[in-house]
């Protein structure tokens, strides 16, 4: 069963909730971002976690599928976003266990659940659903580059999995709190699960990337903002293509550059250093100007989750002074985040 989205209206297949989050055998927290995103932004829809040797944890109660079903869960969500979006052979038995416990399975992986014989057979036998959300809608078109009405903000990054989704969600909430007419536009599987609709950009054929991004944020009232979740990084040797298509098609008026201090190597690679914040600003502005010459950088979002509060505050203040831009950790909030919000809206 595929979840086909209408990105123009943000509608989607209604997913069975609450969720049991499946962490599988994940040892890198960066690859568990789906589980962490659901915990942080849809925690009321998550009853617990289930793993088979994972060394990362969401902190939610550890449950078997049967225990989760008894606690009210209706679906197991694959909370992993690994390189290539593959479903490991060792995952099959626990996924079948979830089906047998009475749970549907929701996946944001590239691999299709229905194409795995053991899962397809078990689902058919038990009357359970296999739901893939990483499926683009039909009828995508190539990008036109034509200017659209309304205002747009795109989160971009120096690397993958460092806060683009969290920043977009936090900015959307902050805009709404200020009375701004705003929509969060999801572009990845976790964002789609949180928002209930969107465009799975990394599953779109390259020729249609820009067109898909245009469909995601259509013409709007002049004062309306679409805050668009970024994907990948223009600097990543594997994922730069989706970043560029999203940048051109989104035509952002404002970018916010996301960065994790201390990260020196691009996620999932060896020998590729992360760029500086200045390099990320410059390249995104240069390439983004192709479809929106008025593009500007509204500020920088730092992921300071590995720092204590005092260290984070000092770094945020120093980077803001050094760059001459608002800098904040959207999750920590505070006056620095307020300044970032104002910098984006000005």
Automatic annotation (TrEMBL):
Residues 57-136 form the D-glutamate N-acetyltransferase-like N-terminal domain. Residues 142-335 form the D-glutamate N-acetyltransferase-like C-terminal domain. It comes from the Bacteria. PANTHER family: DUF1611 DOMAIN-CONTAINING PROTEIN, GLL3100 PROTEIN. This is DUF1611 domain-containing protein.
């Amino acid at each position: 069963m595929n979840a086909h989205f209408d990105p123009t209206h943000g509608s989607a297949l209604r997913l069975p909730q609450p969720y049991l989050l499946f962490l599988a055998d994940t040892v890198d927290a960066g690859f568990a971002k789906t589980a962490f995103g659901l915990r942080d932004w849809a925690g009321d829809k998550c009853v617990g976690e289930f793993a088979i040797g994972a060394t990362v944890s969401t902190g939610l109660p550890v449950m078997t599928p049967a225990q989760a079903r008894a606690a009210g869960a209706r679906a197991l969500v694959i909370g992993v976003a690994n390189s290539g979006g593959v479903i490991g052979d060792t995952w099959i038995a626990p996924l079948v266990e979830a089906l047998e416990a009475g749970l549907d399975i929701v996946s944001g992986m590239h691999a299709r659940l229905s194409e795995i014989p053991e899962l397809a057979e078990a689902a058919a036998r038990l009357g359970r659903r296999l739901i893939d959300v990483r499926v683009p809608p039909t009828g995508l078109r190539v990008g036109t580059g034509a200017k659209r009405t309304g205002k747009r903000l795109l989160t971009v990054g120096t690397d993958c999995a460092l806060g683009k989704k969290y920043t977009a969600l936090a900015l959307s909430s902050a805009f709404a709190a200020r009375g701004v007419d705003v929509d969060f536009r999801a572009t990845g599987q976790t964002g789609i699960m949180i928002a209930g609709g969107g465009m799975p950009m990394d599953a779109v054929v390259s020729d249609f990337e820009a067109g898909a991004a245009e469909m995601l944020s259509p013409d709007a009232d002049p004062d309306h903002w679409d805050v668009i979740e970024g994907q990948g990084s223009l600097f990543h040797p594997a994922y730069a293509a989706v970043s560029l298509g999203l940048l051109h098609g989104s035509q952002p008026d404002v970018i916010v550059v996301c960065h994790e201090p201390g990260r020196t190597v691009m996620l999932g690679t060896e020998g590729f250093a992360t760029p500086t914040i200045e390099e990320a600003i410059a390249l995104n502005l240069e390439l983004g100007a192709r479809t929106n010459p008025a593009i500007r950088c509204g500020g920088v979002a730092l992921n300071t989750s590995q720092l204590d509060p005092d260290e984070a505050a000092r770094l945020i203040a120093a980077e803001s002074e050094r760059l001459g831009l608002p800098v904040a950790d959207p999750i920590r909030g505070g006056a620095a985040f307020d300044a970032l919000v104002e910098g984006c809206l000005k």
